[in-house]
What we know:
By secondary structure, the chain is α+β, with helices and mostly antiparallel strands. It is 27% helix and 18% strand.
Amino acid sequence: MKELALINSRLDARYDVQRLLGRGSYAEIYLAKDILASPRSPHNLVVIKALNVFMQNDLDDDLERTLVENFQNEAIALDRVRHPNIISRHGHGSARDLNNTIFHYIVLEYLPGGDLAKMCRADNLTLSRALYFLEQVCAGLAHAHTNGIIHRDIKPQNLLLSEDCKTVKIADFGVARVTQSDAPVTRVGTNIYAPPEHSPMLSGQTGTLTFTELTPAADIYSLAKSAYVLVTGESPRFFANQTIRELPLDFRSKPWANSFLKVIAKATQNDSRARHQSVNEFWQDMAQLRLFAEANDEIATQVSRREPFTAPQPHVARGYTPVAPQKPRFETSELRLKPTVSVQANPNLIVKLDSGQVDKFPAAAREKHESATPLIPEKSPVAPLRRKRRFFARFATFVIILAAFAGVLYGTHYYLRARGILPDLKSYFIKPTGIASNDVNLRAEANADSQKVGLVPKNSRVRIVNSKDNWYEIDIVEFSRPKEDAADAEHGWVNKRYIDVQE
């Protein structure tokens, strides 16, 4: 197994890789600092998920291609299901590590609050607090299903918490499946939480099932077993690949025990057609347990103002934006390129890894490196004079042709602009600004029915970055008054009639 060398390196001239968080079967997870982000930004720290195909000892061309495609599909799936309760992707790229190994990577938001499995081990949750987190998971998972994505590995370890432990987000879409896919169902997920139709423990035994098609009900099965952990604090290991038919002894006398057991028993049926067929249907049954929540519970007080059986509502953490970064496109062929330079890393030096180049060496290392055998040895100690003259002649010809071509382009543009046929070039590079004429809602998309992500106060200054029909896509440059909600986004869509454009 070949591991990547990324500690104490700078990736893409932006991310300072600090430490390893963990390794999977094909990827390594690192914590990094974004040097371009404000120290007070919630995205000052990020997660680098680096694809390492060389961790597979039996790597071949087909496996390598599959790993790269799965890695790209994970990034695309995250953008497709972007939601306040699903981990967000910030970027992507390809680079070389300190040993000159090429790798692909995606940049994810960092959630320092740990996962719900760890929280349940440390402290038993009250019923209302368990429902508080479960509602957020349901909101994110319902959104994923609406967009045609089945997660296939829902479990408490993949439910991560924000720093204040008030927002939970679904992570690890590495084995997610598009519902319209015709590919055969593969055995993935964790044995304890995986439904029979794709459980690793039942590989080759699906013939015993009357219905094996992969549907959103597969995630509902895993969600129900995760709910069992949140409410009871115990693992459902005794019900692996089985319907949950009883609760731990300490919970059987609770006034809500029978109601809770009825919901999760239905959701964990072996036949997926007998389960809840949508997350909203599952949540409507589960939300009835709010009636049993403790009267003095802080979370119960917060949700008491809402209708108890409505669709699950998201919880928006500070720094969330619905706008996804550029779509990634990773190449398989470049991962097999042979390195031409062996680079020795200095543990006290930050090394730049963008475009596969080393940023700098210490003076002593540079002298040693430059005195080593050259990469392209010369056949003769003195280059022929004729070769030098030919080079300079070709270079001079190239410069003259380039200057002439640039002059023709500039003259043509000047002529067309003077006649009003072409606009001034600076209009393409200088984004117009404007002032909000009234308090206006900031929307996720260019329509009034889309999700509200923030508020633009009256007289706030905005930068217009895009236009669509009667809508502007804007960045809020300066607020006229402090935010009412710190979690409000500062980027989105507003109706044009509320923005006075400044020239």
